[in-house]
Amino acid sequence: MRAEIITIGDEILIGQIIDTNSSWLGQELSKMGIQVVHRTSVSDNAQAIINALNSAKLRADVIITTGGLGPTKDDITKHTFTNYFNTELILNQEVLTWVRDIFKRRKLPMVDSNNAQAMVPKNCEVLFNRSGTAPGMWFDEEGKIFISMPGVPFEMKVIFEEQCIPRLHKRFSLPVIIHRTILTCNIGESFLAQKIETIENNLPPHIKLAYLPSVGMVRLRLSGTHSHYATLKEEIDEIIATLYSTIAEHIYGEENDSLEHVVGVLLKSLNMTLSTAESCTGGYISHLITSIPGSSSYYMGSIISYSNEVKINELGVSSQILNTNGAVSEACIIQMAEGVRKKLNTDYAIATSGIAGPDGGTPDKPVGTVWIAVSGKKGTIAKQFNMGDHRERTIHRSAIQGLDMLRKMLLEDI
Amino acid sequence: MRAEIITIGDEILIGQIIDTNSSWLGQELSKMGIQVVHRTSVSDNAQAIINALNSAKLRADVIITTGGLGPTKDDITKHTFTNYFNTELILNQEVLTWVRDIFKRRKLPMVDSNNAQAMVPKNCEVLFNRSGTAPGMWFDEEGKIFISMPGVPFEMKVIFEEQCIPRLHKRFSLPVIIHRTILTCNIGESFLAQKIETIENNLPPHIKLAYLPSVGMVRLRLSGTHSHYATLKEEIDEIIATLYSTIAEHIYGEENDSLEHVVGVLLKSLNMTLSTAESCTGGYISHLITSIPGSSSYYMGSIISYSNEVKINELGVSSQILNTNGAVSEACIIQMAEGVRKKLNTDYAIATSGIAGPDGGTPDKPVGTVWIAVSGKKGTIAKQFNMGDHRERTIHRSAIQGLDMLRKMLLEDI
After folding, report:
1. Which residue has the higher pLDDT, A103 or A330?
2. Does B11 score more than 90 pLDDT?
3. What does the alpha-carbon distance between residue A4 and residue A97 come to, in Å, rounded to a whole number?
4. What is the rounded average pLDDT for all residues in chain A?
5. What is the pTM assigned to this prediction?
6. CATH numbers and ranges of domains, chain B
């Protein structure tokens, strides 16, 4: 089974946005055992879209387009598909009701272009878009599947997951593929590779291992193909077990889990509460924690102490320590963690203080120097790191370290 | 002048890496007045590469490929070009010396595959790669330019900037293209379209308007082509001025600016300080503000009050108001904004309180209900919103609203 992805929009060609849809779709299709043979990006131009569809049809069984479905004049994908299949637009009552409800709920007036979103090509099956107003479309023509989805990534993802994956499984008989991903943090790709070298060298040819690095994290993905599901599952389970016994301390979760979710689950199971005191991470740890639904049951809040005054007045850091040791020091970070834990009356606390840069570095404490502490009922642990000289990455890495230090403390306290 | 970008590599098709090379090249080519008409990604397969080159030749004058130039077996771009132009590989002494020097400097042994990097197609001009071992190649054949560069982004960028841009200017007489982008927030795409309908309808055919929406924001991009730079610039300046006079209140910046940067610049110019009190946004506003280098000069910190206790104890919200009006109310949000402004002793403050969901909604206050307040020396402004039923988007939209309300207050205070 072969697929081609076509992303539509001038903004992609001129590089104003990065085409993340193609990558995400490439991953999802590969996971299903559908081979992506080609990717194309074309402008908002009917002939260019038609040419791309015609070329794709020669290479692939499934042709997926994203983009050009908005309510404005430069969005021409729907009309192009209508012409391409020599059909007409008809009103879809379900979509109209949905669009009207959205505007009603948000107490916004409808304009003509919004009503027009309920018009769809006669030969398509509507792919309901519960995150937006532009419906997706599924065409089954000439033995090929053509899918059209909005370009907004979160709308596209929900439509693909909920509407397209089940339909593709129903329409085609796809091979047996199993993917398992384990998630590691705070260990580099090459160190990880060294630790699991023997496991990797002994993999059978039908099971592959991929390293997928991102800031502070490496995902390890095993992908296997086989004629028999149960045999493959058993093989992969065994390799996963060996990985766990080899690099247990670095593994924080599996599949699409996040560190902030894992920490939340642990806090909930212990019936414990958390607060944070953030300086260099500036609220990013708090943002990650509160991105988890239900986090209000264990997360009480944070004192973001970007200035020394806030560190002194709100967290009880001694001004003597700030003068002598500085804000980026072991003494300060311990007072911050213990201060916020006491002040917000929580069982645990995370604190960060560092020099995110680009300014503020000294020979003693260069840009990237970060102190992180976690505090619990059995004590406080503080560590120093050098996170490098890139502001955004330093913030992200520090957040991951702080959450991981808390995760380890929670595991010991269970 | 028309260009096509071809990125080569299985890892792109399966989505293991995001193709940032195409976006970057798209930007650079557009800036030079070269129109990118098509982008393609193909696998490490000779026939797929040849097909892509043949198709590109029909559409474009400049065909740029990246990827497949490494020393390993799956890197076949150079051999494919050699066959494509029916030529042979010859040794390039300059490249050989360079590669040998690199290995000598790094104290690494050379293997045969490294020596092979000095072999280049006879008909190419070598594009020297001072960041790596694989040279780029420039072919001038059949009146078209074919460029092959490595896929590693920083190597590709240096080669393109230092070697390709000057050659392209020398080889072609390039037209004038001007892009201008203005940034709007807190107005939907369709409402914006309605407000500027007349402007859009009166655009000359050589100037195009594009809507680029993201959560809470729409970028409006004007793109014009013309034979004469000054004339085009004047035309576009005039349209921009009309846009400003039509939708001034929604415009927060231009080009790659961000709302948090704009707010920071205003605070700096006024020599004023800021604090935040975040409930439903959980630190996201603070994270955005502190993502700007130098924000510590105006941002003092935040009280993230995810629990009612923190609202009462740290922000001075009255427990009577929490019992009677609830945490998501006008009375509470005003006390939060004024409370943090006083507590952290700042000139301005932003506060948020809402129901991000998925739980916690009531018929009176459904999921998505958010109160936001900004407080300054002249008073406090509070507004209620419905941000929809998607947790992440509610957090993002609320942050954008909060920053925009502050921006407007700052502009009035200037």
Report:
1. A330
2. no
3. 33
4. 94
5. 0.83
6. 2-171 (3.40.980.10), 176-254 (3.30.70.2860), 259-413 (3.90.950.20)
Q: Average pLDDT in the B371-390 region?
A: 96
- For A305, the closest of B48, B219, B301 (CB atoms) is B301
**DSSP helix/strand/coil, A37:** strand
Residues of A in contact with B28 (CB under 8 A): 15
**What is the ipTM score, two decimals?**
0.82
Q: How far is A242 from chain B (nearest CA, A)?
A: 24
- Average pLDDT of A336-363? 96
CB A10 to CB B208 under 8 A? yes
For B94-132, the pLDDT digits (tens) are 999 998 988 888 777 777 777 888 999 999 999 999 988
Residue B113's nearest CA partner among B105, B121, B103 is B103
Report how far Cα B374 is from the mean position of its chain's Cα atoms.
28
Structure tokens at B338: 């004024």
Q: Is A248 exposed, middle or buried (0-12, 13-18, 19+ CB in 10 A)?
A: exposed
Please name the member of A17, A73, A359 whose beta carbon is closest to the beta carbon of B212. Answer: A17
Cβ separation B293–A359 shorter than 8 A: yes
Instruction: Give strand pairing partners of B223.
Output: B179, B208
Do strands A299-305 and A348-354 pair parallel, antiparallel, or not at all (unpaired)? unpaired
Query: How sure is the predictor about A282, in pLDDT bands with cuts at 50, 70 and 90?
Result: very high
Q: How confident is the model at residue B343 (pLDDT cuts 50, 70, 90)?
A: very high
Task: Catalogue the E-assigned strands of B69-206.
Answer: 89-91, 119-121, 125-127, 136-141, 144-149, 176-185
Q: What is the pLDDT of residues A162-206, one digit of tens each?
A: 999 999 999 998 888 888 999 999 988 888 989 999 999 999 999
Pairing mode of beta strands B274-278, B299-305: parallel
Question: Per the CB < 8 Å rule, is B388 touching A106?
Answer: yes
Say yes or no for a CB contact (<8 Å) between B302 and A299. Answer: no
Closest approach of A179 to chain B, Cα-based (Å): 14
> How many Å lie between the alpha carbon of B27 and the closest alpha carbon of chain A?
5
Helices (H), A125-228: 153-159, 165-171, 189-195, 197-201
Do the chains contact at B304 and A282, CB–CB below 8 Å? no
Of B380, B358, B381, B355, whose CA–CA distance to B370 is shortest?
B355
pLDDT tens string B20-51: 999 999 999 988 889 999 999 999 899 999 99
- Rounded to the nearest 10 degrees, what angle do helices A308-315 and A330-343 cross at? 50
Residue among B16, B42, B193 minimizing CB distance to A72: B193
Nearest to A391 among B287, B293, B306 (CB): B293
